[in-house]
Amino acid sequence: MDEDFFKEEIYYKDLYYTTKGKEQCAPNHSFGPTVREYFLIHIIMKGKGYFEIGNSRFNLKEGQFFIIYPNVMTYYQADEEDPWEYYWIGMRGEHLKALLTAIGFQVSHPVGNVKNFGQVKAMLQEIMAANPFDTLSRLRLQGQLYLFLSMLAHDLDGAEIKQIEKINKGVEYTKRAIEIIKDRYQDSEFLIGDISQDLSLNDSYLTAVFHKTTNRTPHEYLIDFRIQKSREYLETTDLSIAEIAEKVGYQNPLSFTRIFKSKMQISPRAYVKKIKTK
């Protein structure tokens, strides 16, 4: 990733530069879900990926762009086979939102096609090369931002980019979290935090959406799944309690016995005896 960042602004208020950069993403590289404190425009130079906002997902490719609004939850991910490369420009300004609305952008559909792609690409290269810490260079950069937005406005045709699918991100993340749990429940060193890391999610966010979908926390689901699998072993095999405990992710058989009894109101040994007497 190549990025520079400029925080302080004393000359411009309506619209001003905050950050710019470029990145050639690895396959499936993702960012979010997260919120930004400023406007961020991504222009896709090549490759493809998808962008999510609210319950909508947009498949995007070379010559298209998407806008991230401040304080709006978004997520975007590069394609596995043809990951995108993009430039981004971050902006702030007291009247920037009103300006974007006036030239045709919508928070609910913040995407578009860059029809005069060659001209926009040349301008982007100039913007990327600008030094925001030099006063004269920054003055030129300020003018280029207005020109850049005007070019996107002329080429704005986001209506052609369909909301290809309505999604419930909470349900989707929950499904992926459950898949990870089912794949790794036997690992005694497996932690719920590993799920958040694998999905690039905040721990509290994952817990909230998981609980909303299943009425259980990820930790509770993991315990329930381990107990479910242990019951299968107890009912269908002659393995010892210690062996079963290890197979379902517990190094200490006593810990397994305690958790099993708290869930089933009976010890594993008594459970086996009860099954055999049926």
TrEMBL record:
The keyword Thylakoid does not apply. SUPFAM superfamilies: Homeodomain-like, Regulatory protein AraC. The keyword Repeat does not apply. Signal peptide: none annotated. InterPro entries: AraC-bd, Homeodomain-like_sf, HTH-like, HTH_AraC, HTH_AraC-typ_CS. Residues 175-274 form the HTH araC/xylS-type domain. GO terms for molecular function: DNA-binding transcription factor activity; sequence-specific DNA binding. Keywords: DNA-binding, Transcription, Transcription regulation. This is Helix turn helix arabinose operon control protein.
